[in-house]
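ligand=S-adenosylmethionine
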Amino acid sequence: MHEARRATRTSARPGATTGATELKATSGSPAVSGPLASASRALAFGFAAPAYAFLTAHDAWRASCRALGELVPGPRVLDLGVGPGASVLEVAVRDGRVHVGLDVSHRMLQRAAHRARARGLALPLVRADAMVLPFRDGALDGVTAHSVIYLLPDPAAALAEVSRVLRPGGRVALLEPRASRPSLRGAWSGGPRYLASMLLWRAMSRLHSRFDERSLVALVEAAGLVRARAWPVLAGFGVVTVAERAA
Ligand SMILES: C[S@@+](CC[C@H](N)C(=O)[O-])C[C@H]1O[C@@H](n2cnc3c(N)ncnc32)[C@H](O)[C@@H]1O
């Protein structure tokens, strides 16, 4: 993995191998799609980052993180919108791949760094915007994004970037909120925290966007990715798609 051509907003080098990276705040902010959407992102992933980490600390969320990570090849895997590290750390403890976490939120990256250190894991972290990825063309084998694309003002731009940074044959796996009616009973069977996190996710996605299997496949295919397929997960609250860059 190489340092970015356009790493204007990174504060840690991808590919560093020295454990969880200390991160400094950097200039620049992501594009926003409206004041309400922007405020909700700032609240949920800035000040409320600890609440977010608490709510997503349940088995169903963790299992979905693991399953997503297992859909992409290594050794160089980027987790877009790494947040507090739930998705990437769930996978990184189990394999020998090199994972890099990327997020636009300083608070989220601090939490991910803290959690990685606590587990004794090397987790290079990068502060950057998902719509301007600081990696060279074809630098990565796999990209995961667990509930991230729906938050972006320009999902197509992010997917175009994902396509660019994947090597031929590399794969992306996304998990996003699903538009169709979910199963409340299914979420409740996983306990109150599971249900609460799903309801919050649904409220959040109402402010941003939701996908069904067809629209998520269409989004990745519009970015030039091939062999896309999608299926519902998390009691129908979520939808996963996997696709690859043509060899
Ligand atoms: C719902 S959280 C998902 C966190 C993590 N994937 C998980 O499973 O716990 C979404 C994350 O996307 C990040 N995010 C939002 N907009 C972003 C952008 N434009 N570029 C990079 N990250 C962004 C937020 O800061 C937040 O940490």
